[in-house]
Amino acid sequence: MKIMVVGGGGREHAIIKKIKENKSVEEIYALPGNGGIAADATCVPIGAKDIPAIVAFAVEKKIDYAIVAPDDPLVLGAVDALEEQGIPCFGPRANAAIIEGSKVFSKNLMKKYNIPTAAYEVFDDMDQALAYLEDAPIPTVIKADGLALGKGVIIAATRDEAKDAVRSMMQDKVFGKSGDHIVIEEFLTGPEVSVLAFTDSKTVVPMVSSMDHKRAGDNDTGLNTGGMGTVAPNPYYTDEIAAICRDTIFLPTVNAMNAEGRPFKGCLYFGLMLTPNGPKVIEYNCRFGDPETQVVLPLLESDLLTVMQAVTNETLADCEVRFASRHACCVIMASKGYPTAYEKGYPITIPAEVADGVFVAGAEEKAGQLLTSGGRVLGVTAVADTLSCAIDAAYANVAKVSFDNAYYRHDIGQRALRAGK
Ligand code: AMP
Ligand code: GLY
């Protein structure tokens, strides 16, 4: 089979490495991929948002199966366009990807179908938003409506901060059109859990849970990032909580999307907060999470391509999806200065003995040398029988990978370790 993977980050590298385990896979193309992914797939310089070029490439190469991994092409309708050419795909169509593409859509969906989430108001008028903030409970959370590279959420600790956030989104348009509509919502507290789930719109199969570490600095300090590391499973996510989530969140969400005429097929990501009043949805993503995928897929024992095809064919109910009862830890190695300013172009050394667990996100190849080219450069994942051993093994491998100006958190998994005791 010829497989095409759209995207070029650590998540895509983890997907590609797993897909390669299937013996029927002859060729994998990554669009655009990156210098590290090039070790495992043929990288093609077509951007993940260039839908016409992606479709033309898939038709020309007679691609048998396409996996669209990032949010942008999904929201832009990559799956719709590929399916029109008869190419089977993993990923939701645009009318379902809107569950991530519009916060207003997802909040209204949850309200309509009684799915637990933070209380909220939607505004498309700045003066009304500012007036509402005069006596809204503080802290409060301000969210831009559309995709904003994970940066469209501001937790405001004071009324003035909240008003500044509203002005920057609605007046200064720091997130462009995403700021035309905003959501102001209740500030929730509790441990956060990420649950990725396979769904073919009939059956929902949650994967092993995970915990992201979003802040740049140790002990959850500093700016929000795309994610500095992950562990799986998440110790806060007990069997009892999993059962509540299945009944009050996962199944109701999939049913709600069906009822709206927007069947969701692909990987649905539930960003949950375990509040004192029960689990609530913080966000939905229409795709695999990054870096969650780098700990979840290494624990998957079943064949990923087979599971993905079952999603496409709507036969997930008959497909075994089994995870190892082990633990995984992924440490992201970033360029110093991320998520703001950082330098690029430093040579990267990845010894062969650790390469299996390294997922490359921001690197390019020049004259046979891998060079840093992004903020998040790569993820180093280790799997072990205990969380503590997985953390130790991941950091032991981090020490073997090197590039100038490397920065990483030293405490990935420590909170999970404390919670698990
Ligand atoms: P998001 O981009 O939606 O994932 O939000 C980024 C982060 O903001 C989440 O991981 C949470 O830590 C935090 N967050 C979002 N919404 C809320 C909320 N209603 N209450 C508290 N924290 C929130
Ligand atoms: N790690 C969070 C996300 O993928 O959106």
CATH topology grouping of the largest domain: D-amino Acid Aminotransferase, Chain A, domain 1
CATH C-level label of the largest domain: Alpha Beta
Give the overall average pLDDT. 96
Bound molecules: adenosine monophosphate, glycine
Report the end-to-end length measured between terminal Cα atoms.
Answer: 46 Å
Query: Main beta sheet: strand number and arrangement?
Result: 6 strands, antiparallel
Fourth CATH level, the homologous superfamily of the largest domain? ATP-grasp fold, B domain
Beta-strand proportion:
25-35%
Range of helix content: 25-40%
Q: What are the low-pLDDT stretches, counting only 5+ consecutive residues below 50?
A: none
Tell me how many strands there are: 23
CATH architecture of the largest domain: 2-Layer Sandwich
Spell out the key features of this protein.
421 residues, Rossmann fold, Dna Ligase, domain 1, D-amino Acid Aminotransferase, Chain A, domain 1, 5-stranded parallel sheet, 23 strands, binds adenosine monophosphate
What does this structure look like?
- The protein is α+β, with helices and mostly antiparallel strands and 421 residues long.
- The protein has 4 domains: 2-91, 3-Layer(aba) Sandwich (Rossmann fold), CATH 3.40.50.20; 125-180, Dna Ligase, domain 1, CATH 3.30.1490; 192-318, 2-Layer Sandwich (D-amino Acid Aminotransferase, Chain A, domain 1); 327-420, Glycinamide Ribonucleotide Synthetase, Chain A, domain 4 (Alpha-Beta Complex), CATH 3.90.600.10.
- It is built from 14 helices and 23 strands.
- The strands form 6 sheets. Strands 12, 15, 18, 19, 22 and 23 form a 6-stranded antiparallel beta sheet that branches. Strands 3-2-1-4-5 form a 5-stranded parallel beta sheet, sandwiched between helices. It has a 4-stranded antiparallel beta sheet with strand order 6-9-7-8, sandwiched between helices.
- The mean pLDDT is 96.
- The structure holds adenosine monophosphate and glycine (GLY).
- Glycine binds at residues 150, 212, 227, 285, 289-290, 292.
